[in-house]
Amino acid sequence: MAVFMNDAAFLKKGYEISLDKAKLDFEAIYSYLTTTYWAKGMPAEKLKIALENSMCFGLYHNGSQVGLSRVVTDQATFAYLCDVYVLETHRGIGLSKWMMQTILAHPDLQGLRRWSLATADAQGLYSQFGFTRINNPENWMQIHTPYKAD
How many whole angstroms separate alpha carbon 128 and alpha carbon 106? Predict the structure, then answer.
């Protein structure tokens, strides 16, 4: 696995990753996510519930929310990575890689049998961390009911 910038380098630049849900800026998160292809039309109440019931890795710059990664997990066998973003003005310096390193190293997420995610455009990022296309996709099933955009 490639080596990326360490915590100290980002902390020195005013960046922080925190799991403290009290720090989450709901309005900033909702404003961003409802512009994405994966969460367009999501009702605010649904997002509140999703954040409450997930491990939320908030990314902050000088105290302001600039990104998020959400992990839905039982902390024993499975984790689903979703709602990953870094605001455009903070991209290109390795923050998404730092978030991935932080998530995958979290003590409560060790020894899981399976990680899953869905992405239309970030396979390059996730493949650096061992994610691959699903083996035997014919074995996977889903119920998909997208939100209706307002």
Answer: 17
